[in-house]
Structures are given as structure tokens and as C-alpha cells.
Amino acid sequence: MRTQRQVVDYSLQKRAVLRELLAGRVGTYDVCDASPYLKNAARFHGEPTDRRCPICRSENLTLVHYIYGDELKQSAGQARTLTELPVLAMTLREFQVFVVEVCLGCDWNHLVEQYLLGRDGLAGDNEGTGEQDVAAEGAGRRRREAQR
Ligand SMILES: [Zn+2]
């Protein structure tokens, strides 16, 4: 997706959890704890993959995309299908996406990655793309302007 930015990859954390599991330091009940909400989101909005569950190895993983952001209003925190994201990215300035992998067989679940989407990403580094940026960004811009 063209406007995807600030990607945070959680595969290292996931591998660490799997290592802990293999070593017997955590039990499957600790990591296979998908809530009914998460499993419903996986069923109705999930993106099927051809990757096997690392725990039970009998089901394929499903990816769930959760969206967060002030502009989403009451939709914040909801799951969206992958095909809905580009549409949102064209209509909203900025929102956060959290991708969670879920196994509907054994309830394994883990955060895969997070990133930002939205029209702000299209502007690149151009200045003057709006005034209501996130606090840090806004402060940076004000500082730059103050230096002029
Ligand atoms: Zn599984």
C-alpha cells in the first residue's frame, strides 16, 4: 500500500515467545488465548494465509487488521478486511493499523506488525500538508518554522 509508513515488525518478539514455549518456560495456555472477539474478527474480517500455525500445525493462520485513530471516531478499534484499508487510506489523513495473526484451531494469537496509513503518507516530506498533525510532528514543524 502506497501510504504505508512507520512499520513496526514484531516477528522477533514472536520468535522469542515461540522459543519460550519450546523451552517449556511458558505453556500453550499462556499463548493460545485468543478472545471470542478476536476469533470472530478473524472469521468475518480476517485475511486467510497459507502459513501453518506454529503451535498446532494443523490450521492456517488468519490475519486480522485492527484500525485505530481519532478520525475513525466510533470505528476505532474495529477490525477491517484488507480490501477496505486502501479505501480508508484515501479518505483519512492518518490511522494506525495493528495486524494480529490468529489460529482458529488452537487460539494462538500474536501481534505481527503495526503501521500508519492515510493520505498524509502521499505528501511525503512536503510541508504544509495540514495543521493537525500528531503532537510530536506538529512540534517539530513549529520549531522549523520558528527557525526561519
Ligand atoms: Zn494453531
Description:
The protein has 148 residues and is α+β, with helices and mostly antiparallel strands. It has 5 helices and 6 strands, in the order βαααβββαββα. Strands 1, 2, 3, 4, 5 and 6 form a 6-stranded antiparallel sheet that branches. The two termini are 35 Å apart.
Stretches where pLDDT falls below 50 for ≥5 residues?
Answer: 128-133
**N-to-C SSE string, H for helix and E for strand:** EHHHEEEHEEH
The count of β-strands is 6
Bound heterogens, unique: zinc ion
For the biggest sheet, the summary is: 6 strands, antiparallel
Helix content: 25-40%
Task: Report Rg.
Answer: 18 Å
> Number of DSSP helices?
5
Tell me the strand percentage band. 25-35%
Shape: elongated
Mean pLDDT: 88
Give the distance, in angstroms, between the N- and C-terminal Cα atoms: 35 Å
Secondary-structure blueprint of this entry?
Layout: E1 5-9, H1 11-22, H2 28-31, H3 36-45, E2 47-52, E3 60-68, E4 79-80, H4 84-91, E5 95-102, E6 109-117, H5 135-147
Antiparallel strand pairs: 1-6, 2-3, 3-4, 3-5, 5-6
Bound molecules: zinc ion.
Zinc ion binds at residues 53, 55-56, 59, 103, 105-106, 108.
